[in-house]
Amino acid sequence: MPTDVERWKSETYGNEIREHLLEFAEEGWESIPEDEHDAWFERFKWWGLYHQRNGQESYFMMRIGTPNGVLTPGQLRVVGEIADEYARGPGENPEFGAAYCDWTTRQSIQLHWIRLEDIPDVFEKLEANGLSTQQACGDSWRNIVGCPVAGKDSNEFVDALPVALNLHDTFKGDDDHTNLPRKWKVSVTGCREGCGQGDINDLAFEPAEKDGRKGFNVRVGGGLARNEPRFARDIDVFVEPEDANEVAGGMSALFREHGNREDRYSARIKFLVDEWGTEKVRDVLQEEFVDFELETAAEDLRDEYTYNSGRATGGHHDHVGVHEQNDGNYYVGLNVLVGRMGVDDVLELADLADEYGSGEVRLTQRQNVLVTDVPEGSLDDLLAEPLLEDYSPDPHPFMRGSIACTGTEFCSLSIVETKNRQVRYARWLKENVELPDGVEDFHIHLSGCTASCAQPQIADISLRGMKTRKDGEAVEALDVGLGGGLGEDPRFADWVGQRIPADEVPGAIANLLASFEERREGDESFRDFVERSDEETLEELVEPEETSYEDPYMHNTKLTWYPYAEEDTMDDSPAPARADGTPITSDD
Amino acid sequence: MTVSLRTLDDGAWVSLDDERRAGASELWYVAGVCGCPVADLVVEGITDVAVDGRTVAAETYGTCIRCGASVTTGPVPVGRLVGAGFEPLAAGAVRTPGGGGDNRK
């Protein structure tokens, strides 16, 4: 029996949602028929709008897809202005203020507290400036990710940017690929370091060479969600850049026709690859969905991959710092702690990008931003700008390595508060914990639940939301995993610490790092240390401890309407609200 | 009386008549789903929901924070249909898969 979501999609989905959305916006929140809320909120996702969690009804998270993370000159300012004007709600975040932008782990942008009534104006402003929310969420082609310096990397193997942009232009709004069984995440990598993180995507194009021709090998069926992580699997296909569209469209169509529409929990293509095996995937792709003879896989560059690898090899693990481009200019990678910037800082960054570079800014999968096209002669002045004290190109490793998802602040699935907590963790660790000599990359990813939006399984230290009881009281807690990373031989973290009260996690990390330093062999990386240690040993090394770290979010933040509100119970919620913010009561 | 009942947002919610009525990421006391007499279950996701008589029950997966077991439950009560409304089970209620819930712990 088809699911409700499939039924709703069969009735109205894709581009046609837009006219309904704009009509509802025109008439106001209360014009959505009460018995159609579920259907419309599911459909709105296709246009990048996600209804916020319990206690925040009538407010939306809005995701803007920026293909390959590229914001062309002027676009960052537009995003900042929209956030300033429209992404303000009844709650204020103690770390980030009343309006801010989130850079996501898929090189997109998220704004919160968006009102339905403002959508027409927001869309108009976005689209007038080449930006869109189309398919940013929902069961279709999500934002295409890749190496954020594609086309500018001085060490690039093949320029993947035209391929990524071509896929974006082709499959955004394409009715044939509008309605897939589930989300469809595509990565295109052309660099030598593996920055596109193809391994954790549904469909990955990875650099390869055959008979002197540069192109891509194809992998399928990666993803981290639902305690069912998979790395994308090699289907033994090589494509040249000009054929990438057809192969990608073929794979998308294969998923459309053969993916599971009966059970959304088993719908992602990773499960189809589990069931079929890579040989059948390739055969069906060839026989039913591609009109030319597929070539077998070529020699890849995976043995050179360093991005997010956790290995102590050369090459870069992120894009923070000052790096020369292929045209002699430079890009400056700025660290954005947990990927969130207040609007004033966003607008300031837009000004700096204009003043010192071309105005272009790029987003990375580690929630950071790059200012590109900076002439060598302008570097010193840019680096001396006060904004770079907060968003440093040379941050402390604990700052540099921190990633966090949205968490209970807005998300329905999250079990714990995340962003503000990870900010506090990073600050405390920086002040109180010494990293072993030579350790400059140390990744801590905090995800509020098993959806794994913060990509916890591929970090040195993986943190995942949980609960426990402490002194009889239910408190927010974290599971702790160790030693995950990508690279030539990607590896998911070992979950060796369970249900550690959130206020004891920094102490656990401090103890763990002290043990690592004690037992380290030579200059081995943390990941290598974890790999050569048995699980029992690792479990012993995770020693939770109360320290001077204080955690203001130990209570069940999910039971609040907003975790940082002074009056935070659900009964205090000002939602749902009309366009002017007036709460709508059940008596209205 | 007909009610509209479903899970929403990747298993985050039980929706009844287009209103969120029970959510994942809460702690529920559930009897008989692991080695503990009563599991202290963090509900990580809701996979299905149905009505049995007047009882609304959700199938879930999660972790018992007492023993650490990963648990998949049968239909666990989340509340009752009362007239035209819905009465959620109290947070401290002990729930029995396939059965009811009471407020004894």
TrEMBL record, chain A:
Keywords, comma-separated and alphabetical: 4Fe-4S, Heme, Iron, Iron-sulfur, Metal-binding, Oxidoreductase
Pfam annotation, one family: NIR_SIR_ferr
Nitrite/Sulfite reductase ferredoxin-like domain residues: 54-89, 95-128, 323-386
GO molecular function: 4 iron, 4 sulfur cluster binding; heme binding; metal ion binding; oxidoreductase activity
Occurrences of domain Nitrite/sulphite reductase 4Fe-4S (ranges): 137-289, 399-545
InterPro entries linked to this entry: NIR_SIR_4Fe-4S, NiRdtase/SiRdtase_haem-b_fer, Nit/Sulf_reduc_fer-like_dom_sf, NO2/SO3_Rdtase_4Fe4S_dom, NO2/SO3_Rdtase_4Fe4S_sf, NO2/SO3_Rdtase_FeS/sirohaem_BS
PROSITE patterns for this protein: NIR_SIR (PS00365)
Region (Disordered): 532-554, 566-588
Biased composition (Acidic residues): 533-549
Family according to the record: Belongs to the nitrite and sulfite reductase 4Fe-4S domain family.
PANTHER family in UniProt: FERREDOXIN--NITRITE REDUCTASE, CHLOROPLASTIC
Protein name: Ferredoxin--nitrite reductase
Source organism per UniProt: Halorarum salinum
From TrEMBL, chain B:
Family matches, as Pfam families: DUF8134
DUF8134 domain segment(s): 1-98
InterPro entries hit by this protein: DUF8134
Source organism, top-level taxon: Archaea
Protein name: DUF8134 domain-containing protein
